[in-house]
Amino acid sequence: MKKDYSLWALFLTFLKIGALTFGGGYAMMPVMRKEVVEKKQWADDDDILKILVISESTPGVFAVNSATFIGYKIAGFKGSVMATLGVIIPSFIIISLISLFLVQFKQLTLVAYAFYGIQAGVAILITRAAFKLSKKIHFNVFAIIILMTSMLIAVFTEISVIFVLIGAALLGIFYGFMTNLKEAKNDV
User: Fold this and answer.
1) Final residue before a domain boundary, out of 94, 117, 135
2) How confident is the model over 165-170, as a mean pLDDT?
3) Of the four, 48, 144, 166, 175, which is 20 to 30 A from 93 by CA?
């Protein structure tokens, strides 16, 4: 689905994403999806869903991982470098400026209220992105059981989400293996 791109356009797109999103990588994903899938048509929803899974499963900052993988999907190594630089430069500049005025900045009541509003908005962005991306998941009874079990474990226990992801992946592999084995026996 790769449409024409330039490394400069890739850099500017991710610079815009990095500059205009607050709340971390999950809040950034709906904006990345809109830019990369809907506007630029450099990837499709299946690509974004796969990149989300990989970004969540690999060490490092989710937003940076996502930008790196999307950039690589679009333009190889150079694309990954440009997308990564684009997404981190705004945060680097903003954090550098904030650190200069941190003590005074923290004491502003208006800033504290603004962050309460931003947190609510970020929660809605994440929920909306989850619903849009869930349309691409092929749900069956097994997938629904894994989804519900994972959600319950993540919400009601102290078990790390990484372990939940690993467990779900292993169960998925086992399920796929058993399904293929059953189909192979039926074909004989």
Assistant:
1) 135
2) 90
3) 48
Residues 131 and 142 in one domain: no
Q: Which two structure tokens, joined as six digits, stand for 77?
A: 């190594």
Q: Dig out the tokens for 67 from the structure.
A: 């930008």
Q: What is the pLDDT of residue 104?
A: 72
Angle at CA of residue 29, ends 28 and 34, nearest 5°: 105
Q: Which two tokens stand for residue 142?
A: 């097994």
Q: What is the mean pLDDT of residues 124-133?
A: 79
CA proximity to 35, closest of 20, 54, 56, 57: 20
**116 pLDDT exceeds 90?**
no
**pTM score > 0.70 for this model?**
no
User: Where on the phi/psi map is residue 24: left (φ > 0), alpha (ψ -120 to 50), or beta?
Assistant: left
Nearest to 35 by CA among 48, 46, 23: 48
Condensed to tens digits (0 to 9), the pLDDT of residues 41-63 reads 888 888 888 888 787 777 777 78
Q: Could you give the number of structural domains in the chain? A: 2
Distance CA 23, CA 4 (A): 30
